[in-house]
Amino acid sequence: MMTLEIPLARIRGMTPRFLARLKKLKIQTVKDLLWHFPSRYEDFSTVYQIADLQPNQVATIRGTIQDTSLRRSWRRGMTIFEAWIVDETGSTRAVWFNQPYLRNVLRRGRTVNLAGKVVFSEDDLYMSNPAYEIATNEALGETSHTGRLVPIYPETRGLTSKGIRYLARIVLKNLKPIQEHLPLEALEENGLPEINKALWQVHFPRTIEESAEARKRFAFEELFMLQLGNFAAKSALAEEKATSIPSDIEYARFLMASLPFELTFSQKRSLWEVIRDIAKAQPMNRLLQGDVGSGKTVIAAITALIAAKSGLQTAFMAPTEVLARQHYFTFKKLFGSQEAGIGLITAKETEVCYGQNLETEVKKTDFLKKIKNGEIKIIIGTHALIQKGVGFEKLSLVVVDEQHRFGVQQRAALASSSSKLIPHFLSMSATPIPRTLAITIFGDLDLSTIDELPSGRKPIVTKIVAPTNRTQAYKFIREEIKKGRQAFVICPRIESADTQINADGIADKRRLLWDVKAVKEEYEKLSKKIFPDLRVSMLHGKLKSDEKKETMLNFSRGEAEILVSTSVVEVGVDVPNATIMMIEGADRFGLAQLYQFRGRVGRGEHQSFCFLFTDSSAKTTHQRLKALMEAKNGFELAEKDLEIRGPGQFLGESQTGMPDIAMHALQNIELIKAARDSALKTINSDLKKYPLLKKKLDEFKNQIHLE
User: Fold this and answer.
1) Helix orientation angle between 669-684 and 208-239, rounded to the nearest 10 degrees
2) Can you give the pTM of this predicted structure?
């Protein structure tokens, strides 16, 4: 008897070549094979008599091989194998191309099932390349390739669905019964089959309804495990201890009054939710999401200053140096007069701002000492914050931008090793998350939403620009720049596709066909041919830290009028005078990313514009880009993006480790609710009652890595 853990190499008859092909599909164990679900099914379930066959019909017949022949077609250099099949109603022939070995399989006198398309040519009715199966005394329902719903799997070169079906049936017949790890009451309440039955039904269903039932069971399992993990994480976090940061409402009001603008209602609501959470002795675990430019950083800054007033420290982490520096400038600009001590640390620089905007550059060793002794209360940086040698005196709050999760262990590592207290955690995201994903993927996080933009912001005029209108767009951009405005130009890549050389030293033609704009190429074109009289600069991830800093400073100060960049400006860059966002190869980006790019403009008093350049005439491309033009806000756009592209591309399957079946299930709100209810009942009745489920949950957590 086989178990799920057994390598397929241990099964008798498995050849190295077959195993190598399976490995290409990431199939190496019995479990890998059984969880390689069919992508669709061919309906060969109705068995027809030969006399009833019709042209262009897809059918299964059952008959005896009366005669065979094998010949070579010299004109095309292929072999043709033919078999004449008879039943009690008549006869027909079947034709296979380039499969000479069939003469040793489909021999005269054998009874066979054939399934495939019926072709009519030159007054002759025959079956072309049908699937075949030697008939035995077994009922038709026991066949794998004919006379039933036939599973069609994701394939690879040299490995067909027939080979996978053959192996799947052998494995299922010899599989040791799997112990069900889902609570039986959860399966019964939702009318779902237990795991052994479900595996048979997904691979060899008798009806489409059976296959749907089995798929629903596995989708439910993935959603159930996600929700269970969320509830378990929340429960575990509630057991941890954190420093209670007093809710100094009067100080919060003072800080809000000092701002050069009025906070919106949703900003105030979100701030109150955060202040209320950090006052508790259990660690906050909150996600603050809002549109680009909706004012999330201000909420984080006020919270950090409230902590600083109580003598406590905040670590503020950003994904890039450009964004870390941007946050540092925002803190200084809005709250530089506060006596908090605001510091910036990246891989190559350290700066400190004390009260009254006094700023000093300090050596890294001195900077680290000032963090360690608590002199600097708010520390802004990249992942340099969690490198070895960075220690805090009283770290009470961690703010992370564009990273949804930051685990207990990571927070504990940030805090002093002598402290058993876990810092509060606030995640900020300008990538709106659709409701179904929010309650499923990030259900362990409490959610605060800023769903309105600051007053006075003008809607950004967004246009799709076809190749024929490129010159006209350039003319418009020049006119805007002459008025004193600035422009971003975004490109998908750093270097031109024809610099990509393969292992043989030859340019990869497929890359050359992928005609996307490259930053260096675009910079040369714009600075020398299109706008030779304007100041054009270039920014990308391969530049050194100092070069990136200098480039952004020059653009912010207006010393460059056009900035050609990669997606390094996607998040957080704030240049109020920039009113034009020009995106080359817009069809190469996701809607959420395009929305982020567009949010880099429209941050000042002047009317802003976003031009989406695309050479694609595909209907789906224009459907997606039109959604960007029409969406009223980022949340509406996120729902549309999820609907058009599906969760796999929205989240990035390789980024999450989530199986396909779970990805598709993320759009089924009813199934999500059912899984959530069942998970809540299970966690409330104590997870220790389900040792096998607990083990599976630990495995699931290792597989899924959502950020």
Assistant:
1) 50
2) 0.69
